[in-house]
Design goal:
Shape of chain A: extended
Chains: A mainly alpha (310), B mainly alpha (297), C alpha/beta (270)
Structural class of chain C: alpha/beta
Helix content of chain A: over 70%
Number of helices of chain A: 12
CATH class of the largest domain in chain C: Alpha Beta
Low-confidence stretches of chain A: none
Oligomer: heterotrimer
Low-confidence stretches of chain C: 9-22
CATH superfamily of the largest domain in chain C: Periplasmic binding protein-like II
Number of strands of chain C: 11
CATH topology of chain A: MetI-like fold
Strand content of chain A: under 5%
Strand content of chain C: 15-25%
CATH topology of the largest domain in chain C: D-Maltodextrin-Binding Protein, domain 2
Chain lengths: 310, 297, 270
């Protein structure tokens, strides 16, 4: 018994000794450790700066090379002479149609799903299953959405290459984005709001409709803008489902095919008749797309940071 | 009146429930179509020949559908882009979560977010017109559109994913842990390396895997700048043809219902399985090693 | 309730919109080689006939012919003649595809401007594309690795190259692929050791063309039939064309139409 205690004490003693030695070591190396720390922190900072640098390089490169191509005519004219001259109006319009169509489809479904998950559902295996499904949907590669859109919307539902097929494809791609943004927004509504409303005798739906949704609306809105900008910039899902190489006329129905800005850039940069000759057009189109997408993002980011400050 | 309210309530509840199942339905439809559109291929080509065949000659007669070189191309771009993106993304995350002042973080965060929102076509275009000639000049390689170029561009697409998810993980480390470490005399750096990172490692792993999942599925960048040669690369400057590039380049010009069409769907299925695996592993890690307070560390 | 109304409204509007298109439509599908011709001609044609709406898409020759057989297009573009198999399928469906020769196509091998080689035989070209010849010194050039550039497997130009040069043998897997003639020109002009092939009309000053078997690919040698890598281009219609389709084909074959053919780099019939 005593021996055991002595053993533990011995062990304790050696431990203390070694810790003391280490502390002494620390003191000696204090200066060195500070320098190493500074060095590492510098490295972390540089890594962060590289991101900023990459963004600045890409954006400024396009701005410098593209701003001369952008004129009023460029924005309101159709491509001419086998797309070597003229503007990009049909492409801008097509991109707007496709991305707005996607949101019209995804927004109601996305918000309703998020409401169900956050407000109605009880923790269950089924809920986990739904979450898993949404996460998996979020991870599906964009080209696979394109394949699905082609096989299901264009061929099985006989929509052909059209605005509606492209929009639906982009829509299902935006669905997880909108669901998670809405969920986030709903979660940020304090429970006291709900309790107060329920306490006053409102039903659950009335509470959601009159209290929770209005409070969460700004958050949902930012998420929607982000989803819209993502849909506008995507190329792979619309390559086979909504966008075509060239159409002379503007679409008159949702079953018409359209030109879309991202696909137009791809076509000009890789498949044009004379790629070097149409470089200015490519820079111009890329810059317009960049302004559209980053503009929407900037609006969302600024709006959100204002919300947070409140 | 009360009866009415209850019915409305019930209707609303079941309506929301039904709408929520849309996501699941869509996902099942996607899987269903990938399968049904791939299966006809395997009537003529064995699964082994498809997965491990080295030659991709889809329009020859007789055609050959071996996607080994496409799979390897995809894996290479994913690995190389991760090698670039993981340190950069992780260091940025540490910087944002631990080191940067509040004002600095308020500038850097939106930048990372904007980087994430750059359309892939713009990044592909940049790689084509800027990086490709640059590589040819500086490294004197015959081809500027190659594995390295594509990986580099992809890296900048997945840094934001890795960075923002790891940052969340790092933020979730309890302050008490950090304070304990600092109180014991460890420097801030030592605390970060020995306490913060180990404590948030599961979140960081999830971030990295989701980043890789995004890299393997990204299409436009590899379509435009990977070079498009369906071969197994022997150097980092060789051209490759990753799976998404092959699908995107060939699908638009393939007759519906032909063998080639089914082969491209089968390629899509393989791609889908890869991303599914990545996502499953990520979900598993984040569930299994979920931090539940300080006790679980 | 508002949500329901909103959804109902959405469905109602989406059902209404398609009823509004009334203009006469002409659909062209098929070969990407014919696409630039079709595009140029339809631009001019629609200027003359504003009430006609033409929609164009690629898809490759096989798709163009298949679309004619299925009746999903008015004109099917093809860079090859219809195959026996396809004729049989058409006949069993009660369709009689009619070919219209609209232009000639001439494919020339091209290299970087600094390349000293100026003539190759078809056999040498084939061996380069088979990966058997790997260095320019083997065909009388400088000691430099050959970078083989080819086109995506569904392109019409690739199809022609495969049948006219490769004799159906396979292009080496390490060949870079680019999606278009224009893309190929750009890749060649940036890559010193590169070799590629393009339709004659896409030749620019930034690259150098090679003679084949001592013959320079040109409008003249193609029309005479002496240049080895050339072929006719077709538009197929479902039985003898009528109405706007006939008008459109006649327009391509007119003097004006053939001028447009020439302007996009293909070779006019006369």
């Amino acid at each position: 018994m005593n021996e055991a205690i002595i053993d533990t004490l011995k062990l304790e003693y050696t431990n203390i000794k070694s810790v003391n030695e280490k502390v002494l070591l620390f003191k000696d190396s204090g200066k060195r450790r500070r320098t190493i720390e500074q060095l590492f922190f510098m490295m972390f900072k540089v890594a962060a700066m590289i991101n900023g640098l990459a963004l600045i390089v890409i954006v400024s490169y396009l701005v410098i090379n593209g701003y001369q191509s952008i004129s009023f005519e460029f924005l309101i004219e159709a491509p001419k002479e086998s797309m070597t001259k003229g503007g990009i109006f049909p492409c801008i319009l097509g991109t707007l149609y496709l991305s707005c169509g996607a949101i019209i489809f995804a927004l109601p479904i996305g918000i309703a799903s998020a409401i169900y998950i956050n407000e109605y559902a009880v923790q269950s295996r089924f809920l986990n299953f739904i979450r898993l499904g949404i996460n998996t949907l979020a991870g599906v590669p964009s080209i696979v959405f394109g394949l699905f859109g082609l096989a299901f919307f264009c061929i099985v539902l006989k929509m052909g290459v059209s605005i509606i097929a492209g929009s639906l494809t982009l829509g299902i791609m935006s669905l997880p984005v909108i669901i998670s943004a809405t969920e986030e927004a709903l979660k940020s509504v304090p429970d006291t709001y709900r309790e107060a409303s329920l306490g006053l005798g409102a039903t659950k739906w009335q509470t959601i409709y009159k209290v929770v949704l209005p409070t969460a609306l700004p958050g949902i809105l930012t998420g929607t803008i982000l989803a819209l900008s993502r849909a506008a910039g995507e190329t792979a899902p619309i390559m086979f489902t909504g966008a075509v190489f060239f159409t002379q006329t503007l679409p008159t129905s949702i079953f018409d095919e359209v030109m879309a800005l991202p696909y137009h850039i791809y076509v000009l940069a890789t498949a044009g008749i004379n790629i070097e000759l149409t470089r200015p057009l490519q820079y111009g189109s890329a810059l317009v797309l960049l302004i559209m997408v980053l503009g929407m993002n900037l609006v969302a980011i600024i709006y959100r940071s204002k919300l947070r400050r409140k | 009146m009360i009866f009415n309210r209850k019915t409305t309530e019930k209707t609303v509840h079941s309506m929301f429930f039904l709408i929520t199942t849309v996501s699941l339905t869509v996902l099942s439809l996607i899987m269903l179509f990938l399968f049904t559109e791939s299966i006809p291929l395997f009537e003529t080509v064995s699964i082994k020949d498809f997965l491990f065949g080295e030659f991709w000659y889809p329009t020859d007669e007789p055609a050959e559908f071996g996607i080994l070189s496409l799979i390897i191309g995809s894996l290479y771009v994913t690995i190389i882009s991760s090698v670039i993106a993981i340190p950069l993304g992780l260091m940025t995350a540490i910087y944002l979560a631990e080191i940067a002042s509040e004002r600095m973080a308020e500038i850097v965060k939106p930048i990372v977010e904007m980087l994430a929102s750059l359309p892939s076509i713009v990044i592909g275009f940049f790689g084509m017109v800027v990086i490709s000639p640059l590589l040819q000049e500086t490294f004197d390689v015959p081809i500027g559109l190659n594995l390295f170029n594509a990986s580099l561009m992809l890296a900048f697409m997945i840094i934001p994913t890795i960075c923002s998810l790891s940052e969340d993980a790092i933020h979730s480390v309890p302050v008490a842990l950090k304070e304990a470490s600092l109180a014991l005399g460890a420097t801030h750096l030592e605390t970060i390396i020995k306490v913060v990172i180990p404590a948030s490692i599961s979140g960081i792993c999830t971030a990295v895997i989701l980043g890789m999942s995004r890299a393997i599925g990204e299409t436009m960048v590899v379509l435009m700048i990977a070079g498009g040669a369906a071969m197994i690369p022997t150097s980092i400057f060789d051209p490759v043809r990753p799976m998404p590039a092959s699908i995107a380049a060939e699908m638009a010009e393939t007759p519906f219902g032909g063998e080639h069409y089914h082969a491209l769907f089968a390629t899509g299925l393989v791609l889908f399985i890869f991303t599914l695996m990545f996502n499953m592993v990520a979900a598993y890690i984040s569930n299994k090693y979920r931090q539940v307070g300080e006790a679980s560390l | 309730m508002k949500v329901k109304k909103y959804i109902a409204l959405l469905i109602a509007t989406s059902l209404l919109i398609p009823g509004m298109s009334l203009a006469e439509r002409l659909v062209l599908k098929g070969s990407t080689t014919v696409l630039p011709i079709a595009q140029k001609v339809s631009e001019a044609y629609m200027k003359m006939n504003p009430d006609v709406k033409i929609s164009l898409s690629g898809g490759g020759s096989s798709n163009g012919i298949k679309a004619i057989i299925d009746g999903t297009t008015d004109i099917g573009n093809a860079s090859r003649f219809i195959k026996g198999k396809e004729v049989k399928l058409a006949v069993t469906k009660g369709v009689y595809p009619v070919p219209h020769r609209i232009a000639l196509d001439c494919i020339v091998p091209v290299v970087h401007k600094s390349n000293g080689v100026s003539n190759l035989t078809v056999k040498q070209l084939r061996n380069i594309y088979l990966g058997k010849i790997r260095n320019w010194s083997e065909v009388g050039g400088a000691n430099k690795r050959i970078v083989v550039i080819s086109r995506d497997s569904s392109s019409g130009t690739y199809d022609a190259w495969k049948s006219l040069v490769m004799k159906k043998k396979r292009v080496v897997p390490s060949a870079l692929t680019v999606p278009s003639n224009g893309g190929l020109v750009q890749a060649i002009s940036n890559t010193k050791g590169a070799v590629g092939y393009i339709a004659l009309g896409y030749v620019t000053k930034t690259i150098k063309t090679l003679k084949v078997e001592g013959i320079r690919g040109s409008e003249k040698t193609t029309k005479q039939g002496v240049y080895p890598i050339s072929r006719p281009l077709y538009m197929f219609t479902k039985s003898w064309p009528k109405g706007k389709t006939l008008d459109f084909i006649n327009y391509i074959l007119s003097v004006k139409g053939q001028k447009l053919v020439k302007s996009v780099g293909s070779i006019p019939l006369y």
